Fold this sequence. Notes:
four-stranded mixed β-sheet, 50% helix, alpha/beta, elongated, 775 residues
Amino acid sequence: MYIIKRDGRRVEYDITKIEQAISKAMSASGRTVADNICRDLACQAESVLNERFPSTEPSVEDIQDVVEEVLMSNCYHSVAKNYILYRADRTKRREMNSNLMKVYMELTFTDANDSDMKRDNANIDGNTAMGTMLKYGSEGAKDFYEKYLLTPEQSRAHNDGDIHIHDFDFYSLTTTCCQIDLVKLFASGFSTGHGFLREPNDIQSYAALACIAIQSNQNDQHGGQSVPNFDYSMAPGVAKTFKRLYRDNFAKGVFLIASDTGLTDEIVKQRFRDLEQKTGLFAQLTVSPEFDDAERNAFLDELGQERYDKIHLLTRECTERETNRAVFQAMEAFIHNLNTMHSRAGAQTPFSSINYGTDTSPEGRMVIKNILLAEERGLGFGETPIFPIQIFKLKDGVSYNPGDPNYDLFKLACKVSAKRLFPNFSFLDSPFNLHYYKPGHPETEVAYMGCRTRVIANTANPDRETTFGRGNLSFTSINLPRIALQRRGNVSAFFDDLQRMLDLVLQQLLDRFEIQCNKKVKNFPFLMGQGIWLGSEKLHPDSSIREVLREGTLSIGFIGLAEALTALLGKHHGEDKKARNLGLEIVSFMRHYCDVKSSELKLNITLLATPAEGLSGRFVKLDRAKFGSIPGITDREYYTNSFHVPVYFKISAFDKIRIEAPYHALTNAGHISYVELDGDMAKNTEAFEKVIRCMKEAGIGYGSINHPVDRDPICGYNGIINDTCPGCGRTEKEGHVGFERIRRITGYLVGTLDRFNNAKRAEEKERVKHVSSQA
């Protein structure tokens, strides 16, 4: 009389529902049968149900089981098969809808503070309309990919925590990241949609268009956007600004000192234009005797030697000063823009990074100096900028030693990083970076993207080993502690399981690569349409991007080497030499696998020291539920990032660097090492520089120093703040504006930045002033 629905509801039994389901299965199998046959089969099913459930009410699943049996017993095997497939499809759709609705309920009605899902990306405010909308699409996409694109084995491994497919919500849509050559992009102008942007003609425009390029490319990719040659890219803008200001200032000098000559403003400027056209020379920061001679000859008749020399000297001094000021303002605007502009439907600030430090031209040096000074100054209220990640390149003969042309800028970089955490430092002399370096060719200088990604080698196309226009396509990480916990103490079995997991991850990466290769140029209007990606400038909108994507990398990552070693040997590589040897053997095993597969497939299969972010907590939570709380392995809220020595283990900064350095050579897809230092590093830059030098000498590829960066938004004090602000003496009490505390997560910075508006700030300042006066 009644049946039980899947959601627990009790409804009246209706035999016609069984009859209709059988009829649909018949049609799907190409069988044409009379209605009475379907009715007869339904009646047979009813009889079986009466026998099996004489006093209870069957569920929908029970009824479907019986229908399958009846179809099989009547030799309708193909019909039964289609019925089973139809049933499985309906079950999958119901599960998808049910799970998705639960997700959407949480996204809609739960505050970000109470929802891990809304906080899984620190760069998205999950409480905003656009942030929530982005999460709607993200979670729906993940559910679809899991059920329709992954194989059952891949889906199980990802859900159970054997592996983690990064940026899963973009699985079928795009690639990870790219290194943008702004020199090439700016040379002929570019388009971001409607209309065309001409080649910039001063440093302010160069900086503004750099932000636009980063923002536009962020809308085509899910990862970070990097400029590998920021100093070289901005230097032409400095030269153009100097030239314009020099011409204007010379005309002003003539007006002030030699107005009786009849040389008007327009005449002076036209002579400079003629001079540049005839000789190919123009005013620049570098003193040019050829230009000076040509300029003198152009004006000597009217001005005479004495007045010319005076005007020339004043013009150069004034122009250098004004150009330097313009460059600082442009760099300050660049940083402000990247911390305030948005991408991806307005939901997040672009993930951006810039590499610089090796341009020794006066224009390039001016860019480097001023981007560092702008970083040091901070944002509008003195806040530490989160973006862009700044990376200073160190190189013998360029910036590392006293006497090197950019050594003074290295010293400044240490000073700024000791205050702001940026810049990080990359080391071009590390053997695995130096291998590609060619003096005078910035495209051969290894650059780092985002928190650690590195792309330079090119197995797919050995003649194009360059940083420009290339990036990572996708990456998936292996849970090393999980494998070790399953094979505790059995190292041989561990390697067998690791081999199988590498095979699984590689196949998943190749499956994803195949989906990416089926995209066209028009799916990436900026990345491919504007020729950002290497080789894409030769394609038209409907072209396949398969061949140019081969220039990118497919990366296998890993997490928790320290905990895996503890599970296998009882100690990690920071505390035991045997564990240190095994750690290198494990990572060497994975790197060898990648190299072999790269050679076989003629693709760039690389090994990544995973930027764990939220993954470190996800893996350990799953493993604790599976294996329990195990000291030194699952008893904390996170697994240690990639190959790092655990941060909780007491070890000197120099020993930590020396232990981790060999892993940089093995992880060719990217790596980072950082040390945690207590105290205010801004007051001890000599110690800071010693640590950076230790990294360079040890063979680190990319490194940084972590230290507390706190700020009181009321009085503006920057430094270490415990419970009381050393600047104004106020404490952090409920209802008052809190202190800002910036910390590094992988290569990025995150913090409790104050979100109070200006009125609230003013109100709080007045309150503090009142309390201080009373005291």
